[in-house]
Amino acid sequence: MNRLLTNLSAEIKQLFPKIVEIRRHLHRYPELSFEEYKTSAYVQKQLAILDISYEVVADTGVVALIEGERTGADDIVVLRADMDALPIHEQNEVDYKSVNEGVMHACGHDFHTANLLGVASVLKKYIAEFSGKIVLLFQPAEEKIPGGAIQILESGILESFGGKIKAVLGIHVSPRVPLGKIGLREGRFMASSDEFYLTITGSGGHAAEPHRAVDPIMIAAQLLTTLQQVVSRKANPDTPSVLTFGRFIGDGAANVIPQQVSLAGTFRTMDETWRKEALETVAEISHTLPTALGAAVDVEVRHGYPALYNDPELTRQVKNGIEQSMGDGVVQDLDIWMAAEDFAYYGYRYPALFMLVGTDNNDSATQYGLHNPQFNLDEKAFEIGIAALVNSTIYLLNRPNG
């Protein structure tokens, strides 16, 4: 067996304290999308310690290269980790709690970044055990449209290394997958996500005289329920679709009809044709209904990420590679997930696979979902996260005719 794979468990065990230290440093100093300057500098420092060459791209992104010494095809595997945090005030009381007020790693990107640095440390040590090239992609701004992935692709950096890009692999922690498991799904996996922002302007007035006002609250409420019919009555039942409002603000009072109400929401689906049709319908109804009831309306649709599709053949190869090295039962089959990810863009250009790393250990402190101010995770997940990426990468690069 490959010497790296034989020694992998011991290497990860030895590396574990350092990776936890890196993750906690990143957690303590989170930065928002397109603002990851200190995070980027920290990643660059860690790569320099490992003697891995790198290049800064898209302002805060970092792209590094490890070249194998074994004779073989000049294939490339790209390993991607996102680095940005969220505008959330952390409520965890841990010694590595965020020191940046109102900013938190509530989606595990600190884990993803530290995990990839762990993978880099292992692979750099064993360059004699594989052929081809490994590109380490530390990506900015997954959390904010238009996202960092599209900037990375437009920069052309991934095409600058020569050879054929055989795969782009990414991971995401999941408190819904058991600790010690890797979640995989071939084909469609995650949804597209588009945002819409609606401002309805009526004519404010006294609550006792609604007939003298144009009540934007009532109009907004009617619009909200009407738009739900886009999913319940226009979508094919076989097509996953979710329309959710997360904001409804009318700054009036108990006896005051406000002048204006603002709504904001998202639409998610797995089908690109239906996505376009649904967004057009949302915009049309949002314009016509308030206008018919005497209000003015401003409608803004922000197009987000496309649906994420895992290449079926690549998914099967990675599953085989993980199970051969880590044992049957490590991989858990997943259902579709209606969250969105700009990793999806890589799959439109290269064979790509996005997998989940389980963090569910039945401890109440780690049961909070992603984007929750109390989100935390079991750092033992590094053992499976690092191993899965190392095993997948070696399997893909050393596999003949694949």
TrEMBL record:
Keyword Manganese: yes
Taxonomic source organism: Sphingobacterium thalpophilum
Binding site for Mn(2+): C107, H109, E143, H172, H371
Protein name: Uncharacterized hydrolase YxeP
Domain Peptidase M20 dimerisation: 195-285
UniProtKB keywords: Hydrolase, Manganese, Metal-binding
One Pfam family hit: M20_dimer
EC id: 3.-.-.-
One annotated GO molecular function: N-acetyldiaminopimelate deacetylase activity
Group of enzyme by EC: hydrolase
Cofactor binding mode and count: The Mn(2+) ion enhances activity.
Keyword Phosphoprotein attached: no
Cofactor list: Mn(2+)
Highest taxon listed in the record's lineage: Bacteria
GO biological process, one term: diaminopimelate biosynthetic process
